[in-house]
Amino acid sequence: MLWRLHIRPAPKNGKNHDDVVNYCIENHVAGIGWPVSANVTNASEYEQAARAEYGVRVASIPFAYDPFPGQYIWARDRNGKYYLGCIKSDWFYSNDPLHIELDIPNQRKCEWIKIGSEENVPGKIIACFRPAKTFQAIHDPLMESFSKWAFTGGADGHFLGTGLAIESVNKTTFFRFIGADDCEDVVGLYLQKIKGYCLIPSSCKQTTIGYEFILKHSLTSKTSIAQVKQGKVGLDDRLRGIADHVFLFSTDGVVQADSDDLTVLSADDLFDFVCQHRNLLPARINYWLHFLS
Hints:
About 30% of the residues lie in helices and about 20% in strands. The protein is α+β, with helices and mostly antiparallel strands.
């Protein structure tokens, strides 16, 4: 099993978020908050005390039971730097004044390595940081295998040598590794190179509601918009009427059928485009293609 931890402590006495992150990395621990006043020696006692103290099943309760030693856990700091850890011990509770001050009384021994920016992290892992839940599992054997590869020094090696059964790179594998922004880049490049559109840069705003960017056809001057979603996100035709044509793409979601003014882009077509036009791709997308193949 693979895990994801939001580092969101409430440190005291002048301590800050960076102090907590640095302490965990330097002292080889994974820590989480929700202290209790009772003396607890095992996960069951902690759960009982935490439920009595907080009235709900706070995130530190599942953390007391999982993960098991040898499993991997992802975290990131407020600067967007990602860390990958390997759990080395069962849960234990610490009343050390410094740990209470840092708001990490619930701990596990954990060896951490710095992964870096999003460029080095699969899109599926990045997407798992979007939910607000503090601690959760990542149910994906491919990402679990990647984590093992990365932690054991695979950055200079080859991923497919780690026992993961992938005979060849395919669209499913590719779209699970690239991020949401990468998906938008692929669609934008495809529509310009293959469909004859020109992308209007000023339309690529994060505040844009419902679509990612506006395009204009180089011959007909007709306008188009594109909506791109990663994961099991469904799309529909409510964007009709905003532009002359609508392009929809979801890596995993259900998309309604095409019509004269709406086109559902195919993952097969986009993956073929990526493989045939690597010279046009951003470096990060080429990094994942090289890594997988």
